[in-house]
Amino acid sequence: MSTADFNSRVLARVPRHDFVGRGDELDRIVKHANAQNGRGLLLLMTPSAGCSELLRQAYDRLFNQQSDVIPLYYAFTRHETTAVSAAIEFLQTVLQQYLAFRRKEPALCRAPITLQDVLELAPSSDLEWIEPLVKMYERIRFSNDNKALVRFCLGAPQRIPVRSGKAFVMFDGAQLADDLNGSVVLGAELLRVFGRSGQSFVIAGLRRQILDSARAAESNFELLDLLRLEQLSSEEAHSLVDHVALRSKVVLSREVRDLLVQQFDGSPFFITNFLHTARDRNIALNTYLDCERLYVDELLGGHINHHFTNLLEEMAPHIDKRVRLIRVMWEAVAGDEKSASVEGWRRRLEAEPAEFENTLHQLHIQEFVNWTGAAVDATTGSQTWKDYLRAAYRLAINADPRALVVAETIADSLKRAPNTMARHYKQSDRIDLRRVAGTFDCQRVPAVLFDYRAFSKTYKGMDEVELQAQIASETNLVKLPQTVHVASCYAFDSASRKAYEEERCVVAHAFEDGIYTDAQQTVWLIADLESKLEVDLELAKSWFDRLDSLARQNDFQRYRVWLISNEGFDEPASDLLRQHEAFCSSKRQLEILIQQIGATLAVQPAPVEAADEFLMVVPMGEENELLAASAVEQIARRLTFPPQAINQIKTAIVEACINASEHSHSPDRKIYQRFRVESDKLVVTISSRGIVPTNVGSNNAHLSKQESSDAVAEERRGWGLKLIRSLMDEVEFQRVDEGTSLRMTKYLRTS
Amino acid sequence: MDISTGATVKSHCVGTTAIVYASDYLNKLTGEKIERECRRQLDSGCRALVIDFADTQLVNSIGISILLGIIDIAEKSGAQVVFSDVNNQTIQLFDMLGLTRHVALAKNEQEALSTLSGFNPMPTLH
Fold first, then answer.
1. Same-domain pairing of A412 and A500
2. Beta-carbon separation of A463 and B7 below 8 A
3. Can you give the pLDDT at residue B4?
4. Which of A17, A532, A690, B39 is most buried, with most CB under 10 Å away?
5. Given this model, what pLDDT does residue A197 score?
6. Considering only A181-190, A447-456, B41-50, which range has the smallest mean pLDDT?
7. Chain A contacts of B7, Cβ < 8 Å?
8. Any domain includes B51
9. Which residues in chain B are contacts of A719 at CB distance < 8 A?
């Protein structure tokens, strides 16, 4: 058997450099192991967030470290049916991994060995404790005292002599421990045994279940640390997709990668399984259509289907009850029932109270529902779960033809994809108000940053250097409060979910001067309004009224409304807000405020690699549209276009670039340009990633030159397309999965 | 093409008329600078504005929308606006977007000043 080197892969399934997105958590577990302060670490996992590989990576690092910490990893599986069999398996694992560590033989961890083999492989210095342990185990095993047997097996790590090192046990999938049959509730027993062992340990599992078990075991929370494991961030999930796709040799486009991350909400479990299926079936994922076809296959018969079907079978083993459960669940989801009656559900499921409570508990643990007392909310599950549920309902209850369900689910997923990405791009492009408000800590900042009209009058159009200098010399300052809590407005008024997009509107509880008294307590209600122009009176009033009403509903004694919009507020809107002592700022003011208080902006989109050889790629903004205009001027000259036509092409390109920058919410902030020279024409294609504008597609794909000038006059900032159409001979939006691709043609007229 | 954006907007006054010079590229940034300068001139008592486009090679729609805003501001102040030395391509764009309906065009600065003296909106004081 091979000997370990520093980077040996022992239990991990992927090499360390391919393990992405959980670096901090990995460090924390290893640090916890090395501290050996006798504390437990509860790893509280969001469903499908995935923690097994994290624990296996931690195991490998500790194994390769070869210090006095002896890593032991045990994963509960659905194959174990009783607490006793799981405990016996644990004992076997402990001895096997102990020997592997002591002998520095990673392969021993995976070898199929028996207890007899353990005795033969054990170094003589270890036989003095392993032999008695095995003998005692044989005796207790046939004593018919299951509780004693379970405790004995779980206590095995404590029997390792101190001179050999300190055991560090990591339990994975602990939520499964409570589902085992028999007289012993293993999850709680685990916490009891290890909580009193004085050894450091990790128990990982579904967050709601683990906390319930800890309470049931009357654990001493003073001796427990908590580590929450959420879904991966977008950046981490992108990296995961890239790594898995590369490893699995799956071809996929950036658009599909980003869609996968959003559609699976950053779940490593779903992302990894999905890409493995693409690998197994040798499917390239170049377009949304490729992606959604495979997604629906997965939903109706692949990993996703098995995952959810297994869970439902555990919750409702009998087919008729399972079908009833699917019906009740889907109807609640489809009806957007946020607060259904628990008793109503029980009657519809025709279940006995104890059985029903168990089912509801399982649904709650898996976070398919939120169960609080007499009410149950079935609308909170992931989109993947809802898609599965809907398909299961249509097949099992409606008895719809399978082909119809497949076709319509693909169509629905495709229709949803651009919206999913649009929502994500808007969110990424937006300043994180929660973070900004959370940074308020009694800083003094120029008052003009909260008064758009005053700012506009003094600073609009001012050179940047001069602006910064003058802002720095402002003497009229306001002191920000100290924020103690920030949450979305939605959290305070769930009935208005649609009005309050998560990060666009927040409530910040704070104290003036950082003094914690009733008199100093204040609440800031902050909203970021979407408007291309200065916000008008109507929009400003509707948002002020909405936030004012929210403050009154929640009985906020002192509060301040602060509205923000990209381009600020027109005069009537500013006057109204001033009358109500509300603040209003443009995005520029907010950016300056952020510089002043040191908060960081929203997550910056990751850069893209260089484009292919036919593309000229320029970053959005910074007048970079001029670079494109210069390039096309050179090309057009070669084609001997007359000066007027060259100017028209340049202007059209400038407008196309501005449109792309202003309207796309592009994730990479790049404009891709293709110039194609043909004998009698120049074809220019300007593309960007991001949101698909609503006017693209259907009957607007080929644009007419006729348009009402009156309508345009009302919307001054909507002139770009009108100009392009007037200046170029052919203008066409090409179909792309996301963003826009505008193809413009100018003919060379020789006459 | 060698286009750069100046940090400040050049301007000078002839009597109560301010002459403001647009730069080579009229966009949001340079448009706002012109707007700022025009506001400043109006606030300091100017009764007419000449915006000179002699250097302007390229304009975009946002820049044009800001010009319309300047015309609105001037109207509210009772001031006249004339655009001078606008090249043919730019005039074509102004036409397309209806800007030429709201403003007088002059070949150059001198013609603009002559045009304004013809209007003479200020009453003669005795």
1. no
2. yes
3. 33
4. A690
5. 79
6. A181-190
7. 463, 465
8. yes
9. 61, 64-65, 97
Q: Do A463 and B8 touch (CB under 8 A)?
A: yes
Choose among A80, A108, A81, A77: nearest CA to A94: A108
B96 domain residue, yes or no = yes
Could you list the residue range(s) of the whole structural domain that residue B39 is in?
A: 11-118
> What's this model's pTM, rounded to 2 decimal places?
0.69
- Closest-CA distance, B87 to chain A, in angstroms, reads 10
Q: Does a structural domain hold residue A604?
A: no
Within 8 A of A626 by CB-CB distance, chain B residues are: 1, 3, 25, 58
| Tens-place pLDDT, residues A484-530 | 999 888 778 766 666 666 568 899 999 988 888 888 899 999 999 88
B62 touches chain A (CB under 8 A): yes
Residue A5 lies in a domain: no
Mark residue B60 as left, alpha or beta (left: phi above 0; alpha: psi -120 to 50; beta: remaining). beta
Q: Are residues A414 and A559 in the same domain?
A: no
> How many Å lie between the alpha carbon of B124 and the closest alpha carbon of chain A?
32
A526 and A627 housed in the same domain: no
Provide the domain count of chain A.
Answer: 4
Reported as a single tens digit per residue, the pLDDT across B89-105 is: 899 888 888 888 888 89
Pairing of strands A505-511, A521-529: antiparallel
Q: Choosing among A459, A641, A654, which should be mutated to test the B contact, i.e. which has the most B CBs within 10 A?
A: A654
**Interchain contact, B89 vs A648, CB within 8 Å:** yes
ipTM: 0.82
For the beta sheet containing A166-172, the strands, ordered from the edge strand earlier in sequence to the opposite edge, are A69-75, A166-172, A201-206, A40-45, A224-229
pLDDT at A716: 56
How many pairs of residues across A and B have Cβ atoms under 8 Å apart? Answer: 68
**Residue A578, CA distances (Å) to A454, A533, A541, A572 in order:** 11, 19, 12, 10
Question: Which of A404, A423, A442 is at the close of a domain?
Answer: A423
- The structure tokens listed for A453 are 């009209």
